Amino acid sequence: MFRTFRSRLLISTLLPFLLIAPILGLTLTALVEERILLPSLAREMADQGVLIARLGTVLPEIWTDPEAAQAFLQALAIQQPTQVLLLDPAGRLLAAPAEVRSALGSSAGGPLFEQARRGEIVWQAALRGTDSDIILDVLVPVTSEQGIRLGYVRLLRRLPDVTEGFQRVRRLVLGTVAVGLLLSGLFGWILAQSLSRPLQQVARAIAEAPLEGPAVTLPESGPQEVRQLIRVFNRLQQRRVELEEARRLLLRSVVHEFGRLIGALRAAFHALQGGAMENPTLRQELVQGMSQTANELARLLEDLTQLYRHTAGPLPLQRRPLALAPWLRERAALWAEMARERALHWKEEIPPDLPAIQADPERLAQALENLVDNALKFTPAGGWVTLHAEVRDQEVWIRIRDTGPGIPPEDLPRLFEPFYRGSQEGRPGLGLGLFLARTIVEAHGGRLEVESRVGEGSCFRLILPLTVGG
Which residue numbers delimit the HAMP domain (predicted)? Predict the structure, then answer.
């Protein structure tokens, strides 16, 4: 029945009102009847009784002679609906209208009389008769100037007019409850509409969102939670476009790089087939070039393999104890030779007391090789590449610093994204080296940071906790 968000919100708005309003209305009605209407009428009748009592003190014989008492009442000519009774000091009826005398008998004291004997004016309201009318009963003691109790003036009043007033109050309360319920339902429906409409728009936008093409975004409107949902949807749309761009970059880079390398191999094969085999020097150069090209192809395939593994799940690591100082020196020797081949200056600062850590040597070497390879690739001849390692704040810091052209500030935020080339567009490679390096470092529980200034060079910091994998 309440499957939609709108209906549930509407019920949640109406339910408290449905539960509280009737109770509040009945309570209010009872309070008005008990605390306002009846006490006000009782005070009016009591004032009338006090006036009759004062007249009665002037004629003391009416409190001992029933005929004199009846004559006194007739002389007063009290108009309906109030009926006046005179009682002697013992509470026996002296005078009363005929219809009341027949109903009450000779004694009209009752429980109210016991309270009035203390000299207080008392009253009560009760249901009497077959028609369940409210009877307001007021008892006023009559005392002479000498303090002698002469009798009592009792006033009775049937209250059909008050009962009708009570009915009007009840109808007013019920009407107010009905109007409040109607307004609450209307406001609840408007509120439900204002909430469900943005949700329906988001649901429709999700269902109709294209799998390709520009991002389809929605304006942020409605309550905070709905705006947050729309914000997430818009972010997903932007992320989809980014992934599409990454896919296009991947395809373009793969086609370009493999086409370039295969073209180089084909050219070498054609040269060999065309007679270069007869020239030993040229043949050796072509074979070396083919070998380097094959190595580049293997490197590209390895990068793509690592990218696939990254997308398939967490990067698996084979951790074991790794003595950092000898491990770094062993690899630094190869990197120093590569630097000399490119006419670069190489410097290494590796303390012999570097601690051992738990790490995957092959993966960690791959991350460092990507960083060093970038430094060697982008540093012009005659420049410097420095490898520095140290322990700082329970962490191992490995820096690779170069004196290359530096990285433009606009490229830094996206530097570690896959396939992002930035201002280096057109250079060889797929743009996966830094992305894979960061993935490997983060898999070890570390982080990869970069600082760079255009014209001064770059510094990459590979930071690993000493407890990594421990």
Answer: 193-245
